[in-house]
Amino acid sequence: MASTEQTKVGVPLGRLSKAGVLSFLSAQGILIFFLIGMFVFSFFSEQFLSQSNIMTVVRQASIIGIIAVGVTVVIIGGNLDLSVGSMLSFSTVLVVDLHDKIGPTNAILLMFALTLMIGAVNGFLIGFLRLNSLIVTLAMLSAIQGFVLIYSGGQNVDIANQENTWFAFFGRGFVGGIAVPVLMFGLLAILIQVVMSYTGYGRRIFAVGGNPMAAVYSGIRKNWCVFSTYLISAFCVACAALVLGSRVMGSQNNVGQGYELLVLAGIILGGTSLLGGAGSIWKTVIGVLILGFIQNGLLLMGYPYYIQWIVTWVIIILAVWLDLANKRKRLFTTHS
Amino acid sequence: MFNKTAIAVSVTLMSIAAAHAEGPYRIGITQNNVGVDSYQTTYESAFEAAAAREGNVDVVVLDAGGDVARQIGQMQDLIQQRVDAIIIWPTNGQAVIPAIRQAHSAGIPVIVTNSKIADAGLDFIAAFSGPDNVQQGISSAEMMCDALGGEGQIVQISGQPGYTTAMERAGGFEDRLAEACPGVELLETQPGNWNRERAQRVMEDFLTKYDRIDGVYSGDDNMGVGALNAAKGAGRADGIIFIGATNFAVGYDAIERGEYYGSIYQSPVDDAEAALQTALDVLAGEELPKMNFFETPKITAENLEEFDRPVF
User: Which chain A residues are Cβ-neighbours of B204 within 8 angstroms?
Assistant: First the structure.
């Protein structure tokens, strides 16, 4: 492998410093890019760095952010969750539809229970039956979308009386001047970051994702660990559905379509490796915010929607490339 | 899941059959994407109900699931089955033309419903039936002009990029506004993709970007209500005129509450019934204009009572 050659004794000084630069770029490159981007955007649009705009962007990013926090845990555990977009549609349609039928409290409780059940199915198939997570969650994506279409009969669901329901709190409320979605995003991120960094449970997830065999030999119950990461992911989706349903006060049955990609984009931008065993919630938060600011900045500059997609994905590919370049200590490789 | 091949076989009672001089007919319909939006879902059930009422019509209802290739396949199936007429809700106004041409060569009249096809295909169809989206844009522009008294700054949230309906509405709106209302300036247009959450985000960004917004035109009410949500959230809803199209139940309610100025009434039930009627007229050999538009009136607080609350 190329990297073993590079780490041999007697690496020329020039190459060492190049590796140093690369390492710095891959670790902080996205942050630098982000700062340059912010600078450029603020040059073209005076409102970009205004307090109200920053609050708006963070609020807009919080739905994707809340989901991304959960999916980061799944990825650190060495798996993927592509079903989160469909699950978001499911949970949002459910909570909005049930709101008028059984009241907000019951609707929220039932929605959380059913969303966690889907997470449990994912977790069981992947954790205990050891099925490939990509395939299971991709299948789940279609299955849930089909279920949502049947449940809603293809109709949009709306909360009839939007003015007088405390359900509005989750999407539109403020606590101490901070929007509730932002607060939920922040609290979930802090909570899960603490769990992942400072508890035995968190260390076990890292171990399972990093080296499953070693983890099993050291007595970690891998099945349960993997299972639990899908419960965390489902819980986060349920929280996001609460915010989304309350923010819009209604739901389309395909509302979460494509969210799985945005969530992955945020996580990858944050530098979490899709191979598992490494990553950080904190960096996912940064990644999601970068995504939000890019889209907002381009829109404020008057660029159409499609440009946002192109720019976003160019930046993601760049991030993945820099990450890989750091691992093999060079930008380009001629080896296969 | 939802590409139902529901074959609604109506019981042809002798008495009803006697009431109709022609028939029985077998009409095939291939829809665009039932189940993903309320309008199309309502259209489908209305179409089946209307066909059942006719008594002498058997319908073969297919759904392309938004997939052009699948729709072309369904057209070929219907040609194979030798149905008497085909109604198509094009997934893509250009790509379906060869399939329409095949049906035309096989002697099966094709009726295009709801969304137009490209001009190159017009020679091969018997008739079009649907809403006039250009006219809808024009009507919305006139309402905007009236509401603002001919002066102001507005933004537009358009539908799915590349979608004929979205382009026609935006085009009709922009042209008419420029012509009838030069005092109203269209600051910017961004797509909301027929999605309320997306429209809400776009509007939040507009509100940041522009200190003064007097009006918002949305390609449909679903997005319009998203824009209204955003403006309410920013505490700026009172100073803004909201005008949409395709009146949704939420839009209807918002007009009733006085938060939303107006919309265009377009019923999927009218749409479905007009398509079936057009097909029957073609089969009966009546002389029809090529383009058959059904009425899509302006709806505001003043005439709200004349219309039923939309079911979607």
Answer: 56, 60
CA A316 to chain centre: 14
Interchain CB contact of B209 with A (< 8 Å)? yes
CB contact at 8 A, B168 and B178: no
Tokens of B252: 């209807």
Compare CB distances from B1 to A60, A146, A172 and report the shortest one's residue.
Answer: A146
* Coil, helix or strand at residue B264: strand
Q: What is the DSSP letter of A126?
A: I
Task: Evaluate whether B192 touches B198 at the Cβ level (below 8 Å).
Answer: yes
> Which tokens in the block code for residue B136?
């809808």
Angle of helix A51-76 relative to helix A84-102, nearest 10 degrees, comes to 110
Contact B240, B210 (CB under 8 A): no
pLDDT at A284: 92
pTM of structure = 0.81
How many CB atoms are located within 10 Å of the residue A84 CB? Answer: 32
Q: Classify strands B262-264 and B298-300 as parallel, antiparallel or unpaired.
A: antiparallel
Measured between alpha carbons, how far apart are the two ends of chain B, in Å? 21
Query: Closest Cα partner for B117 from B88, B139, B138?
Result: B88
Pairing of strands B215-218, B152-158: parallel
CB proximity B233 to A under 8 Å: yes
Report the C-alpha gap between B244 and B242 in whole angstroms.
7
**Crossing angle of helices A51-76/A180-198, nearest 10°?**
40
Report how far Cα B305 is from the mean position of its chain's Cα atoms.
22
Q: Is B191 on the interface with A (CB under 8 A)?
A: yes
Instruction: Collect the ranges in chain A with pLDDT lower than 70.
Output: 1-31, 33, 323, 326-327, 334-336
The predicted pLDDT at position B10 comes to: 37
Residues B137-196 have pLDDT tens digits of 999 999 999 999 999 999 999 998 877 889 999 999 999 999 999 999 999 999 998 889
Q: Which amino acid is at A8?
A: K
H or E element at residue A129: none
State residue A105 phi and psi, 5-degree precision.
-60, -50
What is the C-alpha end-to-end distance of chain A, expressed in Å? 9
Residue B128 CA, chain-centre distance (Å), reads 13
Are B260 and B251 in contact, with CB atoms under 8 Å apart? Answer: yes
Residue type, position B253, single letter: D
- Pairing mode, strands B215-218 and B57-63: unpaired
B36: contact with A, CB 8 A cutoff:
yes
